[in-house]
Input
Amino acid sequence: MNDNDKIGELIITDPIEPHAYKGRMEIKRAVIQDGVKALPDYAFAECRNLTEVVLPASMQELGKHTFYNCRSLQKLSIPAGLLSVGDGAFKNCLSLWKLAFYGIKEDEDQCVRKVLFDIEQEVELTLFYTEKEQTKTDQNTARLVMPQYDYQYVANEPARIFSEISYGTGHYYRKCINTSKIEFDVYDNLFDRSARENTVRTVSEQCIARLKFPYRLSEKAQEQYTTYLSEHFDQVVIRLIQESAVKQESLEKLLWLGDFGVLNRERMPRAIEIAQEYQNTEVISWLMEYRSKHFQPAKKRFEL
Output
């Protein structure tokens, strides 16, 4: 084990005991190296400053409450071979929003559903499927944004039973992930509901994710996502410009709109105008450079 307190990174090379790092506030990033097959109960519970965890391909089991109450945990890298996720493993990980699953094979997506069980907030899933190329490319990568949901238990006192009532589209989206595979067509078919019930921010993130990584994306679904971004162009651009001040990837997403045909020659002046209104010189520079590369002015012809 290499425990580097100075930079807050913990590297684990050997099996550990339950409660091993419970409540360790100095740990900010944990990397579990290949060969370790399990993390026991409460291994990292209450590590309030832990922001990122990388699990190896050898990882097969997470114990009960492994990351319980790690409220700063944001990013998690997970192998497809993860077979067991203990009760409450990610309970109260309220900042967790970026999950990457690697080595996934078609019809073997079981670990995704298990990991999501305790996560009610909006999350971004990036799924690296193992296909012929055996490489991580856009062609075998999927990205899905799962909206948040909430639930409560309602008591039926005469019958002495409790019924669970769910709120939010996230409940329906999570049903796309069953015990054997992810139903991408079902995910895409929920878009109208999402557009009605979720914020423009959430819906536009769903659109951008599916268009950028169009794994098993039909032409019909592609059109619905592109149409939404076009119809909400100003709102989407404003949001990305505002977020770009703290997230570099928001600036990249703005330029991805060009790849989708949403940020086209006709809409580029409006995008630059919005950037000027927000006095964001970096975005203005990026947009001007993008316009120079992709939207050269048509040459004038003179007839004699």
Summary: The CA atoms of residues 13 and 33 lie 5 Å apart. The mean pLDDT is 89. DSSP finds ten helices and 13 strands in the chain.
